[in-house]
Amino acid sequence: VCHPLSDSQVVAAWASVPFPALHGYSLHDTLYAYQQDVPWKLLSSCREQKVSCCFAQSVVLRGICKGSHISCPENQATSPLHACESTEQTLQHYLHTMFPGAFSTSHVLEQPCNTLPPYPQFFSPLLTRQGFLLAKPPSYSSAAVESIPVLAALQSSPGLHRLLYSLYKDLRKLNTQRLASFFSAGVEQDDFQEALEKLRTLSQCYEMGSEADESEDEADSD
User: Fold this and answer.
1) What share of the chain is helix, strand, coil (3-state, %, to 5)?
2) Single pTM value for the model
3) Rg of the chain's alpha carbons, rounded to an integer?
4) pLDDT digits 0-9 by tens, 48-67
5) Do 206 and 11 meet the contact criterion of CB atoms below 8 Å apart?
6) Dihedral over alpha carbons 14, 18, 24, 29 (to 10 degrees)
7) In a domain, 214, yes or no
8) In terms of Cα–Cα distance, which of 123, 222, 104 is closest to 173?
9) I need a labelling partner for 193 at 20 to 30 A (CA). Which of 19, 109, 116, 156 fits?
């Protein structure tokens, strides 16, 4: 895998709004329930890849208490997550487990994201006023959700290769002779072609072995 260019790096955005933290449970227990797939979704337009495919990432989790209260003793004997002494260590251990070999940084902040009006109230009735998940709907009419825990992540991964390479191919198909007004604004044809090649080179920085072979085949077919 080629390293990203020193002056050009691309990341994909992921988020969980709200983060599916269980009411009355610790972060250990919440992450223990997501050992097959991470509890956040891709926001960028690149194709989702296998969970473990990641070069580097930065993750921030807000709205989780930093206390280490354990509510599922039966999990403690089998889960290394429950051996972590803090929420920061728990999240970091989870990231290293789900993304082995990736460089991961993480931060846990207690301050949640406020969802008071005019924030739209489109939340599930399973959420408490603080945005934590209940095991079953309450028997009473729940009040508006005032805040929610949120996780956001920026990730450098092989999925960016296909996104960048697709953009390169689309731009290469442009008939620049029909873009007189574009180039009259100060963009030179040579500069455009140079930027195009830099985009192609940048896409190669995020490809893995099988994708590299696929890109060469696509280039030959073009």
Assistant:
1) 35, 15, 50
2) 0.80
3) 22
4) 666 668 899 999 999 998 76
5) no
6) -20
7) no
8) 222
9) 156
Does residue 84 share a domain with residue 173?
no
Cβ atoms of 90 and 176 within 8 Å: the answer is: no
**Residue 4 falls within a domain, yes or no?**
no
Give dist(CA 63, CA 130) in Å, integer.
9
**How far apart, in Å, are the Cα atoms of 62 and each of 65, 84, 113, 135, 212?**
9, 19, 7, 21, 38
Are 167 and 107 in the same domain?
A: no
The rounded distance, in Å, linking the Cα atoms of 72 and 125 is 24
Furthest C-alpha separation in the chain? 70
If asked whether residues 40 and 130 sit together in one domain, one would say: yes
Q: Which range marks the domain in which residue 35 is found?
A: 12-156
CATH number reported for the structural domain that contains residue 115 in this entry: 3.30.1330
